[in-house]
Design goal:
alpha/beta, about 150 residues, globular, five-stranded mixed sheet, about 30% helix, Rossmann fold
Length: about 150
């Protein structure tokens, strides 16, 4: 099975750093990570033909900070109300739809979003988001291990 992890977010915007921080932990464990510091459309070539893409980002849904949300798609669009906290103009949901239209989408996509509270430039992640990093990293690894 071909699989990849894509982490989104900015290290310099508070809870939006959750993706890069999980990416750091996965790399330390020897896993390869697609780091999307720029527009998610730059992932199009890397995700083409994958069986599984696991996406990690911050979300805003009104839940308690640090809550881990899981969404799964088997070739259908991600929910339109997906409240990823992306600072990009063209988000991951739109990127995946473009990939699908071009025949380049992964067969299965799992989005793991961590509820954030602060996204200001120069802020540190909140304690609740920092406390969720271990569980989120373990969940990414479990998704990759699932057949």
């Amino acid at each position: 099975m071909s699989a990849a992890v894509a982490v989104l977010g900015s290290r310099y915007r508070g809870d939006d750093a959750v993706g890069p921080l999980v990416g750091d932990r996965l790399r330390e464990a020897g896993l390869s990570v697609l780091d999307c510091r720029e527009e998610p459309t730059r992932l199009l070539d890397a995700i083409e033909g994958l069986d599984l893409l696991v996406v990690v980002d911050a979300v805003r849904s009104g839940a308690e900070p640090g809550t881990i949300h899981r969404l799964e798609s088997h070739g259908e669009p991600l929910p339109g109300d997906l409240a990823l906290a992306s600072t990009h103009a063209f988000g991951i949901a739109e990127t995946l739809e473009l990939a699908r239209a071009l025949g380049r989408a992964p067969r299965r996509v799992v989005v793991l979003g961590v509820e954030g509270a602060r996204f200001g430039l120069g802020e540190q992640p909140t304690p609740a988001v920092a406390a969720a990093l271990d569980a989120l990293t373990a969940q990414v690894r479990a998704e990759l291990a699932e057949p």
